[in-house]
Amino acid sequence: MSLDDRTLARLATAIENRDPDALATLAALPPGHARIIGITGPPGAGKSTLVDALAAALRRQGQTVAILAVDPTSRITGGAILGDRIRMQQHHADPGVFIRSIATRGATGGLARATADLARLMDAAGKDYVLIETVGVGQDELEIARLAQVTVVVLVPGMGDDVQALKAGIMEIADVLVINKSDQPGADRLERELRAEWPTPVLRTVATEGIGIEALLEAIRTANPGPRPLAPGPRLDHLGIAVNQLDEALNFYALLGLDPTHRETVAEEKVHVAMLPIGDSRIELLEPSAPDSPISKFLSKRGPGLHHLALRVPDLDSAVARLRASGAKLLNDPRPGAGGHLYVFVHPASTGGVLLELIQESTK
Predict the structure, then answer these.
(1) Which residues of the chain fall below pLDDT 50?
(2) Residue 68 and residue 130 in contact, taking contact as beta carbons nearer than 8 Å
(3) CATH no. for residue 349?
């Protein structure tokens, strides 16, 4: 697909705003061939300057580039603080470079909730490379590894104890480690330390002067790319089991070493809930709190047993838009459920016979 920049920008805006028509359009687009590169690291590492230099080098080689720069959300407007577009003005008149600043809008992990959708859009639009620059991240903000084929972690000399803290987090997801601002004191020491502890390729750059950029591009090209995770898939959240008596059921699961970590009554659904963690998923036990509860009706018709399957999705609004566009039967609009998460139920007639609950992946 080929789109002019104005059309691409309008579609990107509609996707960020979770417009159902735009999300349905995105879902129908065939994949492209782009290489998805994540640029992440702590604040002050020079990620924007490095992305700018990479884009310039790729353009000299005739490659088209999309830059998705995730910026903090403005407390006044709710939009992105557009520092990255200001810093990348050299590409303003180049039709081969598309730059988009994305507001985090409260999302954590270094990315905005719409980042995956916009990366997919840029890929479908025929870009050769999609460079995703995260906000300044810390130890546990690893979302970029789920999205990028190649993840570049950018560090700078003089970080001291900060590097020690990062070792348990973002450095583990690096396909390439970059010491930017490597003309500063401490670069030799940092490089020795990284090479001694990590098998990952370690390169030195001075992005402001274009030093080391070609070597970094070669490392990106030769890195073993992961799969193309442009549309992160759902994950099992829990199995919902309808029971007559919650305490009686809990006594049974206690024999298996499963104890509830969360209990509550969801007034809107007229149900008592207990959550039992099991690995990365959970068992949700459901006891009716009123005779007209949906769980009461289920028990009277089918008896105790599996009530529904729940999947976590990275973007509930996008999933709902795609399902509605396909004609799937939804039983409710997204609304808060147990634990405060947003959810929607899909009728068994659309899922092959199982009541399906879709839950918004937490951004906390």
Answers:
(1) 75-81, 84, 106, 108-110, 139-140, 363-364
(2) yes
(3) 3.10.180.10
In the chain the first and final C-alpha atoms are separated, in Å, by 35
66 lies in the same domain as 189 = yes
Do residues 294 and 215 touch, judged by C-beta distance below 8 A?
A: no
The answer on 27 and 121 residing in a single domain is yes
> pLDDT tens digits, residue range 74-117?
544 444 445 545 556 666 678 899 999 887 654 544 466 678 88
Strand order in the sheet with 176-179: 97-103, 65-71, 129-133, 35-40, 150-155, 176-179, 202-204
* Residues 9 and 104 grouped into a single domain: yes
- 3-state SS, residue 69: strand
8 Å CB contact between 153 and 170: yes
DSSP string, 265-280: EETTTTEEEEEEEETT
pLDDT at position 115 is 85
Q: Pull the structure tokens for residue 39.
A: 């640029």
Q: Domain with 73 in it: what CATH number?
A: 3.40.50.300
Tell me whether residue 260 is exposed, middle or buried, using C-beta atoms within 10 angstroms of its C-beta: 0 to 12, 13 to 18, 19 or more: middle
Q: What is the model's pLDDT at position 325?
A: 86
The CA radius of gyration of the chain, in Å to the nearest whole number, is: 24
Q: Are residues 163 and 271 in the same domain?
A: no
The dihedral sign for the CA sequence 155, 157, 162, 166: positive
Q: Is 228 part of a structural domain of the chain?
A: no
252/201 same-domain check: no
- Is 345 in a helix, a strand, or coil? strand
User: pTM of whole model > 0.90?
Assistant: no
* Domain presence at residue 294: yes
Residues 20, 158 within the same domain: yes
Domain that holds residue 144: 5-222
Shared-domain flag, residues 75 and 35: yes
